[in-house]
Amino acid sequence: MSPAEQRIADLGLTLPEVAAPLAAYVPAVRTGSYVYTAGQLPLVGGKLSVTGKVGAEVTADEAKQQARICALNALAAVKSQVGHLDRVVRVVKVVGFVASATDFTGQPGVLNGASELLHEVLGDAGVHARSAVGVSVLPLDAPVEVEIQVEVADA
Q1: What pLDDT score does 146 carry?
Q2: φ and ψ of 131, to 5 deg
Q3: Which CATH superfamily is domain 3-152 in?
Q4: Mean pLDDT across the stretch 40-60?
Protein backbone atom coordinates (compact mmCIF):
# COMPACT_ATOMS: atom_id res chain seq x y z
CA MET A 1 0.00 0.00 0.00
CA SER A 2 1.38 3.39 -0.98
CA PRO A 3 1.74 6.14 1.66
CA ALA A 4 -1.13 8.08 0.04
CA GLU A 5 -3.36 5.02 0.20
CA GLN A 6 -2.31 4.49 3.82
CA ARG A 7 -3.43 8.06 4.59
CA ILE A 8 -6.78 7.23 2.95
CA ALA A 9 -7.08 4.18 5.21
CA ASP A 10 -6.04 6.26 8.25
CA LEU A 11 -8.97 8.57 7.46
CA GLY A 12 -11.26 5.55 7.67
CA LEU A 13 -11.86 5.57 3.92
CA THR A 14 -11.28 3.09 1.13
CA LEU A 15 -10.14 3.96 -2.37
CA PRO A 16 -13.05 2.70 -4.47
CA GLU A 17 -13.07 0.95 -7.82
CA VAL A 18 -13.24 3.44 -10.66
CA ALA A 19 -16.84 4.47 -11.26
CA ALA A 20 -18.24 3.26 -14.57
CA PRO A 21 -18.91 6.07 -17.06
CA LEU A 22 -22.54 7.13 -17.42
CA ALA A 23 -22.15 7.95 -21.14
CA ALA A 24 -19.59 7.98 -23.98
CA TYR A 25 -16.38 8.94 -22.16
CA VAL A 26 -13.64 7.44 -20.01
CA PRO A 27 -13.07 8.14 -16.29
CA ALA A 28 -9.56 9.59 -16.84
CA VAL A 29 -7.05 10.29 -19.58
CA ARG A 30 -3.29 10.58 -19.27
CA THR A 31 -1.39 12.77 -21.68
CA GLY A 32 2.32 13.32 -21.04
CA SER A 33 2.83 14.19 -17.38
CA TYR A 34 -0.83 15.01 -16.70
CA VAL A 35 -3.95 13.06 -15.84
CA TYR A 36 -7.34 14.65 -16.40
CA THR A 37 -10.37 13.06 -14.78
CA ALA A 38 -13.91 13.20 -16.02
CA GLY A 39 -16.38 14.77 -13.66
CA GLN A 40 -16.80 12.43 -10.70
CA LEU A 41 -20.14 12.13 -8.94
CA PRO A 42 -20.41 11.10 -5.28
CA LEU A 43 -21.22 7.50 -6.20
CA VAL A 44 -20.67 4.83 -3.57
CA GLY A 45 -21.24 1.31 -4.81
CA GLY A 46 -22.73 2.77 -7.99
CA LYS A 47 -25.37 4.79 -6.14
CA LEU A 48 -25.94 8.31 -4.87
CA SER A 49 -26.82 8.55 -1.20
CA VAL A 50 -28.06 12.14 -1.55
CA THR A 51 -29.82 13.89 -4.42
CA GLY A 52 -31.17 17.35 -5.01
CA LYS A 53 -30.15 20.98 -4.93
CA VAL A 54 -27.81 22.37 -2.31
CA GLY A 55 -29.63 24.99 -0.29
CA ALA A 56 -32.96 23.21 -0.82
CA GLU A 57 -33.09 19.40 -0.39
CA VAL A 58 -29.39 19.10 0.50
CA THR A 59 -27.58 21.07 3.19
CA ALA A 60 -24.20 22.67 2.57
CA ASP A 61 -22.62 20.30 5.12
CA GLU A 62 -24.12 17.25 3.38
CA ALA A 63 -22.86 18.54 0.03
CA LYS A 64 -19.38 19.13 1.48
CA GLN A 65 -19.27 15.46 2.49
CA GLN A 66 -20.43 14.49 -1.00
CA ALA A 67 -17.59 16.57 -2.48
CA ARG A 68 -15.14 14.48 -0.41
CA ILE A 69 -16.59 11.35 -2.01
CA CYS A 70 -16.19 12.92 -5.46
CA ALA A 71 -12.51 13.67 -4.73
CA LEU A 72 -11.95 10.10 -3.53
CA ASN A 73 -13.51 8.82 -6.76
CA ALA A 74 -11.27 11.18 -8.74
CA LEU A 75 -8.20 9.79 -6.97
CA ALA A 76 -9.32 6.28 -7.94
CA ALA A 77 -9.55 7.42 -11.57
CA VAL A 78 -6.03 8.88 -11.37
CA LYS A 79 -4.68 5.68 -9.85
CA SER A 80 -6.21 3.70 -12.73
CA GLN A 81 -3.96 5.64 -15.10
CA VAL A 82 -0.68 5.68 -13.16
CA GLY A 83 -0.67 2.58 -10.94
CA HIS A 84 -0.32 4.24 -7.55
CA LEU A 85 -1.05 7.63 -6.03
CA ASP A 86 2.51 8.31 -4.91
CA ARG A 87 3.26 9.20 -8.53
CA VAL A 88 1.14 12.35 -8.10
CA VAL A 89 3.53 15.29 -8.10
CA ARG A 90 0.82 17.91 -7.73
CA VAL A 91 -2.90 18.41 -8.00
CA VAL A 92 -2.90 21.31 -10.44
CA LYS A 93 -6.58 22.20 -10.71
CA VAL A 94 -9.90 21.18 -9.25
CA VAL A 95 -13.18 22.14 -10.90
CA GLY A 96 -16.34 21.57 -8.91
CA PHE A 97 -19.97 21.95 -9.86
CA VAL A 98 -22.67 22.40 -7.24
CA ALA A 99 -26.34 21.89 -8.12
CA SER A 100 -27.63 24.97 -6.34
CA ALA A 101 -30.93 26.39 -5.22
CA THR A 102 -31.40 29.82 -6.83
CA ASP A 103 -30.37 31.69 -3.66
CA PHE A 104 -27.46 29.41 -2.63
CA THR A 105 -24.05 31.12 -2.81
CA GLY A 106 -21.88 28.81 -0.72
CA GLN A 107 -20.30 26.82 -3.57
CA PRO A 108 -16.72 27.46 -2.37
CA GLY A 109 -17.51 26.03 1.06
CA VAL A 110 -19.04 22.92 -0.49
CA LEU A 111 -15.96 22.36 -2.67
CA ASN A 112 -13.72 22.67 0.39
CA GLY A 113 -14.76 19.07 1.04
CA ALA A 114 -12.85 17.95 -2.06
CA SER A 115 -9.94 20.33 -1.52
CA GLU A 116 -9.46 19.33 2.11
CA LEU A 117 -9.51 15.61 1.26
CA LEU A 118 -6.88 16.06 -1.46
CA HIS A 119 -4.65 17.92 1.00
CA GLU A 120 -5.18 15.30 3.72
CA VAL A 121 -4.25 12.47 1.34
CA LEU A 122 -1.46 14.11 -0.69
CA GLY A 123 -0.08 16.76 1.67
CA ASP A 124 1.39 19.80 -0.06
CA ALA A 125 1.02 18.03 -3.43
CA GLY A 126 -2.74 18.23 -2.88
CA VAL A 127 -2.83 22.05 -2.74
CA HIS A 128 -4.31 23.34 -6.00
CA ALA A 129 -6.05 26.06 -7.96
CA ARG A 130 -9.85 25.66 -8.04
CA SER A 131 -13.10 26.78 -9.59
CA ALA A 132 -16.43 26.35 -7.77
CA VAL A 133 -19.41 26.73 -10.08
CA GLY A 134 -23.10 26.77 -9.25
CA VAL A 135 -25.33 24.99 -11.78
CA SER A 136 -29.04 24.25 -12.05
CA VAL A 137 -28.78 20.46 -12.31
CA LEU A 138 -26.19 17.66 -12.49
CA PRO A 139 -26.40 14.08 -13.83
CA LEU A 140 -28.63 11.75 -11.78
CA ASP A 141 -29.70 14.80 -9.73
CA ALA A 142 -26.36 14.68 -7.89
CA PRO A 143 -25.69 17.67 -5.62
CA VAL A 144 -22.01 17.96 -6.59
CA GLU A 145 -19.51 16.86 -9.26
CA VAL A 146 -15.72 17.22 -9.16
CA GLU A 147 -12.98 16.84 -11.76
CA ILE A 148 -9.24 17.14 -11.17
CA GLN A 149 -6.09 17.64 -13.17
CA VAL A 150 -2.86 16.23 -11.72
CA GLU A 151 0.78 16.22 -12.69
CA VAL A 152 2.41 12.81 -12.33
CA ALA A 153 5.97 11.53 -12.26
CA ASP A 154 7.16 8.84 -14.65
CA ALA A 155 7.49 5.35 -13.21
Answers
A1: 98
A2: -120, 135
A3: RutC-like (3.30.1330.40)
A4: 96
